[in-house]
Design goal:
Layout (H helix, E strand, L loop, with lengths): L1 E9 L5 E10 L4 E5 L6 H8 L7 E6 L2 E2 L5 H6 L1 E5 L10 H5 L1 H5 L4 H14 L16 H13 L5 E5 L7 H18 L2 E6 L2 H7 L2 E6 L3 E6 L1 H6 L4 H7 L3 H5 L17 E3 L5 E6 L2 E3 L3 E2 L6 H10 L5 E4 L5 E5 L1 H10 L21
Parallel strand pairs: 3-8, 3-9, 6-7, 7-8, 14-15
Antiparallel strand pairs: 1-2, 1-4, 4-5, 9-10, 11-12, 12-13, 15-16
Helix pairs in contact: 5-6, 12-13
The protein binds adenosine-5'-triphosphate (ATP).
Length: about 350
């Protein structure tokens, strides 16, 4: 666990980048620092590996003050990934990834073998190992950056806007890849972004910072979307909070009914469309085992008759869910009503005489 206790950073020119920040980054989970430009995200991140030293307060790694650990030792246990990967331009990909193992004195053979393993782990073709960074796409370079940070198997990974320099499609695949890696590796990850969508997608916990380096709210993404602490957080989360929250509710509990005979399927049971007088009409599918309530609702909206088709992992029909079944679950997850007035406030409807 990484703990910030009343941490303040005042730069020489008097700028207070981080102001009395206290929070806990749990072990083995992704914590995202998000907030508008200049709110102190990068400063907070870099104080963890002492690229920047705090002016006051304490940052502890598993209870140990980071100031007690000399920076090279500290950084060996902390991988660091930055925007545009920051690869060494004159080193081959394999040697970029092997940077830390070389520093640790591993033999060239062992370091390169580890690098090849890592390239595969981050989803890169090992055939790229002999290239130079400029011969790779932005997304590939970013994967190399992640592989390099993982080289010495550090328990902690700091990621500073690692995916901001790539287009939205590559970005989404890098995010998915990070989630896949994390489900295997269970690192303690601190991830900085200014993109709230990225924050709620990746974060087990999201810390929203406001300019001046103050913590506005720290919560799981679903809670953040349902119960923003104040107007600043609400505005920062932007529109569609209600719909986006459905991504965090599993579709497992959606009540399924037997597929009616007007759902046409092929011989292996995969849907073909809704039978109508004019032929087959559009249908939408979701997999209750892996999809969210948002996907189930989307499937219903995409179906010509408003009925979502539930499928298994092979794409075979398991049943259907009408809007009534989806609405039942939506109602269950509706935000809680305001708490009743305190008992001593008297019954609200009794007007004073
Ligand atoms: N070396 C420095 N000297 C003086 N002020 C600095 C220095 N580095 C950062 N700052 C200021 O500290 C504040 C926080 O900067 P920081 O880079 O931590 O913010 P950020 O949230 O990461 O921003 P961005 O999303 O734009 O990268 C900003 O006002 C910035 O101008």
């Amino acid at each position: 666990m990484i703990t910030f206790e009343g941490v303040t950073k005042r730069y020489r020119d008097g700028t207070v980048a981080v102001d009395d920040l206290s929070l806990e980054v749990p072990t083995g989970a992704i914590t995202v620092f998000v907030g508008p430009s200049g709110c102190g995200k990068t400063t907070s991140l870099r104080m963890i590996n002492r690229m920047i030293d705090a002016t006051s307060g304490r940052i502890a790694l598993d209870g140990r003050d980071v100031r007690e650990i000399d920076p090279p030792t500290l950084r060996r246990g902390i991988g660091y990934v930055i925007q545009q990967a920051g690869l060494f331009p004159h080193r081959k990909i394999v040697d970029n990834v092997a940077t830390v193992p070389y520093l640790l004195g591993w033999s060239k053979q062992k370091a390169r073998a580890r690098a090849m393993e890592l390239l595969e782990l981050v989803g890169l073709d090992p055939g790229l190992a002999g290239r130079y960074p400029f011969q790779l796409s932005g997304g590939q370079q970013q994967r190399v950056g992640v592989a390099r940070a993982l080289a010495a198997d550090p328990p902690v990974l700091l990621m500073d806007e690692p995916f901001s320099a790539v287009d939205p499609i590559v970005r989404a695949s890098l995010q998915d890849e990070l989630l896949r890696l994390q489900s295997e590796l269970r690192k303690t990850i601190v991830f900085v972004t200014h993109d709230i969508d990225e924050a709620v997608k990746l974060g087990d916990t999201v810390a929203v910072l406001r300019v001046g380096g103050r913590l506005a709210q720290m919560a799981g993404p679903a809670t953040l979307l349902t119960e923003p602490a104040d107007d600043f957080v609400r505005e920062f989360l932007g529109r569609d909070r209600g719909i986006r929250r459905l991504s965090f509710i599993s579709a497992k509990e959606v009540r399924l009914s037997q597929a009616p005979s007007d759902l046409a399927t092929d011989e292996s049971g995969r849907p073909l469309g809704w039978r109508t007088a004019d032929g087959l009409a559009a249908y939408g599918t979701f997999d209750p085992e892996t999809d969210s309530l948002r996907a189930a609702l989307d499937a219903a909206l995409l179906s010509a008759n408003g009925v979502a088709v539930a499928v298994d992992e092979e794409g075979r029909v398991r049943g259907v869910a009408g809007r009534d079944a989806i609405d039942e679950l939506l109602a269950e997850y509706a935000p809680s009503p305001p708490s009743p007035p305190a008992a001593d406030a008297g019954p609200a409807e009794e007007a004073p005489a």
